Amino acid sequence: RALAVMAATLTNVTSKAAASAITTSSSTTTSVAAKIMASPKPVGVKELSISFLLVGLVAAILRHPTLSGKKGTTGLSSKLSNRLLVAAGRCTLQLSFLGGFVIQQLFVKTQDNPLLVISWIAFIALVGAHESYSRMSSSSSSSLEGLSSVYPTLHHHVRVAFLVGVTSVLTIAIKFILKLTSPWYDARYLIPMSGMILGNMISSNSLLLQSLIKEFIHHKDIIEYYYLAYGASYMEASRSAIFSSIELSLVPIINNLSVVGIVHLPGMMTGQILAGQSPRAASMYQILILFWIAASVGFSVLTMTGLFVRKGIFDLHNHALKSSSTKVSGYLAQEEKINDKKVTKEKSRFFSLLHFWVKRRTKTATKDKITEHPSTPPPVIVDAKTLSSTSGITSNANSKHMKPLKLQVRNVIVHRDNSDIAAGNNDDGHVDSSQTLPPPLSVSFDLHSGEIIGIKGKTGVGKTRLLRRLARLDYDREENSDCLLSPSNNMMSLNGINCSEMYAPKWRRDICLVSQDRMNFSIDSNISTPRKFHQYLLSLDTQQQEKLKHSQYQEEEHQLFSSPEQIASQWNLPSDAFDKSWSTLSGGEAQRASLAIAMSLQPQVLLLDEPTSACDEETTLKIEKSIKEYIYWASTVGEEGEEKKEEVMDESTMQISKHAEMTNGKAVVLVTHSTEQLERICTQYLHLPS
Q1: Helix, strand or coil, per DSSP, at residue 572
Q2: Where are the alpha helices (DSSP H) in 511-616?
Q3: CA–CA separation, 434 vs 195, rounded Å?
Q4: Do residues 186 and 112 lie in contact, with contact meaning Cβ atoms separated by under 8 Å?
Q5: How far is 117 from 115, CA to CA, in rounded Å?
């Protein structure tokens, strides 16, 4: 009985304790919820001042002599300290004005006026675009000097990208996600959303532009000489640069999505919780905003990339970089630069719009005036001359069997803007009229199958520029391209087909330029070794089409040049060199590997820019022999008249068989400083005057 009484008493006590605990827990939960949902503590001038002092403390530490140098001097750290304080001050003024006046008025006055909300969003989008462009300009000012002449609409395209990014996402959010109907332009939603979206777009687009400029301006030689020159289209040549730039611009938003909610609490979610919003509701809104930010950044980045590549730096007709196009006159570029400097010093921000309008109206008249500069010399006509030599290669005029015409060039203008001479201006920006540019060249020649034309002249006279014009890497914007003029004027044709009728990458696949410059291939893992570079070239559309078109012909007649390793082995280059990084190869090894790769692709015409400049005499002779064998792979006529496919080079005398008849021979344009090499293998030559 005692035990039963004790058990009953214990049960009663336990029940009361449990009820009390539940009541206490419930009241505690209610209290916590009430605290969470309570209004935030008001923030006044005192709280803002204390917080600003924390920023001032950081600025003071940056001014310490340990970082800024000697006391009293203005170093980089002092400038950084000033920038931090100015930015903090701007933040205070802008947000105080924005929250206390602008947005407050917009909330009141936009009930029946959607135009105000749309105008505000457009305004902050343009301001964000300007800020993004300014950040890029400050970090890439040296690159923009050359870019502005060929891409003057860059800042306009940045604005377009910002507007596309914010309007596309906001339209979808209003229509299908938030489903705002009364009214659809509710400022409480659109203004905060657009502000957060545009704030993230500034950083991403700045990173994108900096990367695009680095890839296409600083590394333009790689794009031209090792992508475009081998038959790549503008998209194939820029794909790697585009991908790396987009990847860099999206890294911040990807990192933000990855660590949000774990490493940091987003600002919007924190603000909503402090304002009394439920944490669950705040987190859902934050997820929506992050998704919208990611989408808008992606849309703006893709839009900016497309405009940059297609409308900015590439000439889509020639599949060439605009930044590499030849100036019509050195004085034209020179005087435009001087005028821009003078105007920049004199004009104010208030008159910038008026100046732009006047400049556009007077641009044509100014161009005509400068083009007629009295110091601009007329073109020098350069024609090919037959070279009498003991090379065993006869010119077309003396050959027994007429050789097919391979490359015909008529009056192609080559402008020479030697930087040392073209500068011609003093420190005050005055043009020294006594220093004139070298006269442009008007080049004409006929190159037949089995012939090698040499180009000689002093350094800087335009030999490489001529090769670039033949490869259509350079074009004259005043002439609108060598290919688009009448046959009686400027013209280039290959196998009787005018270059205007040929796809530009196909033209370069058949007329391949091999540069003498050694590039840093380590920036692109796709071409980091000679073997990878060769495999990449074989994957190009033009190379694939040529392989399908002539697969049977190549297997039967051109087996000798199917492998670059086999070609290079004749020049004492081991096959394992093709698996080494370009940076570890010597100058001669890299030169031989590049030439072997080009010959293995079987172009109709090889444009060789000093192909043996880094080789010794013995290797040079072996390379010359391979070049002769390359252009004379032909058919010989047998006793019964049937054609027999065989090599037509006499190994002992290096002479060409008398019965050789060129059916599908190749040709070479060779730039060299060696008179002996010119006499050994060339049938004709061009002498470019200085």
Answers
A1: coil
A2: 530-538, 541-549, 551-557, 564-569, 587-600
A3: 57
A4: no
A5: 6
* 683 DSSP 8-state letter: S
Q: Which helix (H) or strand (E) holds 155?
A: helix 154-172
Across the chain, which has 690 residues, the per-10-residue mean pLDDT values are 54 52 48 50 78 88 70 62 87 78 71 80 90 74 63 90 92 85 79 86 91 85 90 92 92 87 71 75 84 93 94 89 50 39 43 50 42 50 61 43 81 70 42 59 90 89 90 66 43 88 92 83 74 91 82 48 85 93 89 93 93 92 91 48 42 43 73 91 88
Q: At 155, which amino acid appears?
A: H
How far is the C-alpha of 613 from the C-alpha of 462, rounded, in Å?
18
CA atoms within 13 Å, Cβ hemisphere of 91: 10
| C-alpha to C-alpha distance for 605 and 599, rounded to whole angstroms | 10
Cα gap 495→166, rounded to integer Å = 52
How far, in Å, CA of 232 to CA of 537, rounded?
8
Q: What is the DSSP letter of 102?
A: I
Rounded Cα distance between 570 and 49, Å, is: 79
* Residues 314 and 320: beta-carbon distance below 8 Å: yes
**Residue type at 456 in one-letter notation:** K
pTM: 0.73
Contacts of 679 (CB under 8 A, 6+ apart): 387, 389, 390, 391
Q: How far apart are CA 466 and CA 490, in angstroms?
A: 14
Half-sphere exposure of 587 (CA within 13 A, CB side): 10
Pure H helices in 63-113: 65-68, 76-97, 103-109
